[in-house]
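Q: Given only this backbone (611 positions), what sequence would you predict?
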């Protein structure tokens, strides 16, 4: 690897580390000395250029309660460019009975490191699992402070394309160092775990969203919530704080250690938690219940306390917060109704394009499975709305019957709510301010589902303007078949000839409409058209009868233009942009539906002649 001397495996460690450090300082002096950035006057810091192998110092963190404890450490050397160009790491060995017992602890990231009595950086990295000794990586103070550098423009927080540094991050060590330390080939450093504390969540709900959580770099940990205290905002380096994602009857917060405090600015973590760059999240005080030692990965058990400010930046080398008022969050209310009564949850969610939809789905499923009356085999009736600032509400109404799939029945409700919320919140047209999400789910302990087995009309020939009755044969789950009649009236303007009658469920009719809301090539005129289409979608618990005539329909933005003449189609075809419209070979002459007490599935086609 560039920058490391090839040494014999028999070379002793002190000589090896001294050689590595000396070689690095010779080869990269301009790198170490340049770009120290703005250092707040209140901080007495030790620049990376002055860090030498063999230096001793200490770090501060909390192992239990509110007591900040000190443990010793020794500098082993500097690993240049480990995180990327000009992003170096100080390698240290931790000393003392506690850290030698626990190793590097999840939640310790951000713990301030002092050399020669000056702030040199923050603990940020650890060796992979089952490390033989407590070795850790330290983010230098210059890199830590870069998170507070002024920027000409901040990123749009609600951009659907926001990229993060989530997921597993590994930084390979030089082969010579790995060999000298007796480590396995391919040894690496990885960010110290940031405990993500869930309070009020059922393990089943967390487990079902574990894959999505892992994709965002999140892993559940033990913990809970604590009452706010008057002195919560009196932060010192070494204290614990939390980035709040959900608060209220449910709580989710990611916790790490404070590295430095200067004025109203708070530096923490020493590495990214999500890696989203500019963010707006509540910052809360955190309390350490105890530290759980593990040979695989020790972790602090943390409770989130009172909100004391906001997190503004989540970057490669640090998380930055400001003391003061917290940012706005999205209120959400979930009511579950069963034969045993109602249960209501009220909580607030952080506003972020990647996190909020995930938290909406997770919270919805949790509200169902955490109910003592919940069981598999239930049919769920969903009602509710997503309230938006300046736009009509998005209506949420549907029924979900249980299936034989190996997933919780409530997951279909949660997935639907998450999908609709995502389509609105991350729409490509404009930033959306969600005023509130309100849900109500009624659970019935039976499988309410019926399949369309057949259909017929009481008349094979009709005249324009004449009434007819479509009779549908339905077979419920483990029940006797029954017939449902749907009265229809043939529109006066329908042309003579053969027409089709489509008897169907909601999904059959929704497929083409969903082209505009799901497809990346869709070109609606704006958010209002998207809301119109979402509210127009058919519902699972209705039986639909659609009269189709053999003339083309043009779907343009949020409008259906039946019986479109060829000349109009040609003109629009020349003017419209790619993906802005779809041409169907049939037009809807009429649509009727009846509300059912079951989820309807299937379709059946009839032919009828207009005299």
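A: Predicted residues:
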């Amino acid at each position: 690897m560039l920058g490391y001397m090839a040494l014999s495996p028999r070379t002793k460690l002190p000589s090896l580390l001294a050689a590595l450090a000396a070689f690095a300082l010779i080869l990269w002096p301009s790198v170490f000395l340049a770009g120290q950035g703005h250092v707040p006057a209140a901080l007495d810091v030790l620049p990376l250029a002055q860090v030498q192998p063999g230096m001793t110092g200490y770090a501060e963190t909390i192992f239990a309660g509110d007591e900040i404890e000190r443990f010793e450490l020794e500098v082993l050397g500097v690993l240049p460019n480990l995180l990327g160009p000009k992003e170096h790491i100080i390698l240290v060995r931790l000393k003392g009975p506690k850290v030698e017992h626990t190793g590097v602890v999840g939640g310790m990231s951000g713990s301030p490191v002092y050399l020669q009595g000056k702030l040199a950086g923050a603990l940020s990295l650890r060796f992979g699992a089952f490390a033989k000794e407590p070795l850790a990586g330290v983010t230098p103070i210059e890199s830590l402070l870069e998170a507070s550098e002024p920027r000409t423009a901040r990123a749009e927080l609600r951009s659907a394309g926001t990229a993060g540094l989530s997921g597993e991050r590994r930084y390979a060590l030089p082969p010579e160092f790995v060999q000298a330390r007796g480590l396995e080939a391919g040894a690496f450093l990885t960010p110290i775990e940031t405990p993500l504390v869930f309070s009020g969540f059922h393990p089943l709900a967390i487990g079902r969203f574990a894959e999505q959580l892992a994709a965002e770099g999140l892993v559940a940990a033990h913990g809970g919530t604590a009452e706010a205290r008057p002195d919560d905002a009196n932060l010192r380096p070494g204290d614990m704080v939390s980035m709040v994602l959900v608060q209220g009857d449910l709580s989710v917060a990611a916790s790490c250690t404070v590295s430095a405090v200067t004025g109203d600015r708070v530096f923490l973590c020493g590495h990214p938690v999500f890696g989203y760059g500019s963010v707006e999240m509540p910052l809360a005080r955190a309390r350490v219940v105890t530290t759980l030692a593990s040979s695989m990965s020790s972790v602090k058990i943390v409770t989130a306390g009172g909100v004391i400010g906001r997190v503004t930046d989540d970057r490669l080398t640090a998380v930055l917060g400001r003391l003061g008022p917290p940012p706005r969050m999205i209120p959400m209310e979930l009511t579950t109704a069963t034969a045993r009564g109602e249960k209501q949850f009220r909580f607030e969610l952080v506003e972020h394009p990647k996190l909020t939809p995930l938290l909406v789905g997770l919270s919805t499923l949790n509200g169902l499975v955490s109910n003592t009356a919940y069981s598999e085999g239930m049919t769920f009736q969903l009602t509710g709305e997503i309230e938006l600032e300046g736009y009509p509400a998005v209506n949420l109404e549907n029924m979900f019957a249980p299936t034989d799939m190996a997933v919780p029945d409530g997951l279909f409700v949660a997935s639907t709510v998450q999908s609709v919320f995502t389509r609105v919140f991350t729409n490509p047209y404009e930033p959306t301010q969600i005023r509130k999400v309100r849900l109500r789910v009624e659970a019935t302990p039976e499988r309410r589902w019926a399949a369309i087995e057949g259909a017929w009309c009481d008349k094979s020939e009709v005249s324009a303007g004449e009434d007819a009755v479509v009779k549908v044969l339905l077979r419920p789950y483990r029940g006797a078949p029954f017939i449902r009649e749907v009265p229809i009236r043939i529109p006066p303007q329908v042309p003579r000839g053969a027409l089709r009658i489509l008897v169907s469920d909601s999904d059959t009719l929704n497929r083409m409409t969903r082209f505009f809301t799901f497809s990346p090539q869709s070109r609606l005129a704006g958010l209002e058209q998207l809301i119109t289409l979402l509210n127009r979608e058919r519902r699972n618990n209705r039986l639909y009868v659609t009269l189709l005539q053999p003339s083309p329909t043009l779907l343009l933005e949020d409008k259906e233009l039946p019986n479109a003449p060829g000349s109009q189609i040609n003109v629009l075809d020349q003017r419209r942009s790619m993906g802005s419209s779809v041409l169907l070979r049939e037009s809807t002459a009429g649509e009727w539906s009846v509300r059912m007490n079951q989820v309807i599935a299937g379709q059946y086609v009839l032919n009828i002649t207009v005299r």
